[in-house]
């Protein structure tokens, strides 16, 4: 397993639409392990493969780790098959948009299908933080960042903040 660097906006590689995984093989499982390692190393709760420069439809997530235990979940080729009309708003952040947190409204409940790391198909319904995280991570597979859901003004303020933070970091 290896911790891989996470791309940050406005890196054009984050805008790439990810391609489906055709076969869940050892290479895919290795990539998943790297994603989980990289997510934990960066203190994140979710990560899409494209964020480490691998535009494939894979996401990993762990919403339980703050209780001290690790319970990583993996979703290969995830698709949303249903969204509720009801929306829920959460303050979101992203490992690819560091130090920016903004409210985003998304479907409160969704139904998803995905393959697990053995290539087995599953379906389930999600609500709360899990529903929000899944939609956030699935957006990454389409090249969409959470700041793309903000108003033009809020997005440009967020991007300016991000550039400034990057410059400070580069300056030492
Ligand atoms: Zn993200």
3D structure, described in words:
The protein has helices spanning 26-41, 128-141, 152-170, and strands at residues 46-48, 58-61, 73-83, 87-94, 97-107, 109-115, 121-127. With 172 residues, it is of the alpha+beta class. A hairpin with a 5-residue loop joins strand 6 (109-115) and strand 7 (121-127). The mean pLDDT is 94. Bound molecules: zinc ion (ZN).
Number of helices: 3
In what range is the share of β-strand residues? 25-35%
Q: What is the general shape?
A: globular
The run of helices and strands is HEEEEEEEHH
How would you describe this structure in keywords?
30% strand, alpha+beta, 3 helices, 28% helix, 5-stranded antiparallel sheet, binds zinc ion, 7 strands, single chain, 172 residues, two-stranded antiparallel sheet
């Amino acid at each position: 397993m290896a911790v891989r660097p996470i791309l940050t906006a406005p890196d054009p590689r984050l805008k790439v639409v990810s391609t489906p995984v055709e076969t869940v093989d050892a290479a895919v499982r290795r990539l998943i392990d790297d994603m989980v390692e990289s997510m934990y190393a960066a203190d994140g709760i979710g990560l899409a493969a494209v964020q480490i420069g691998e535009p494939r439809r894979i996401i990993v997530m762990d919403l339980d780790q703050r209780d001290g235990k690790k319970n990583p979940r993996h979703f290969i080729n995830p698709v949303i098959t249903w969204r509720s009309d009801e929306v829920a708003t959460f303050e979101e952040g992203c490992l690819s948009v560091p130090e920016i947190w903004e409210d985003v409204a998304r479907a409160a409940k969704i139904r998803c299908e995905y393959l697990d790391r053995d290539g087995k198909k599953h379906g389930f319904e999600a609500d709360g933080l899990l529903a929000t995280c899944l939609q956030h991570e699935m957006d990454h597979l389409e090249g969409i960042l959470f700041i793309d859901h903000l108003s033009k003004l809020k997005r440009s303020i967020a991007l300016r903040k991000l550039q400034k933070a990057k410059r400070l970091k580069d300056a030492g």
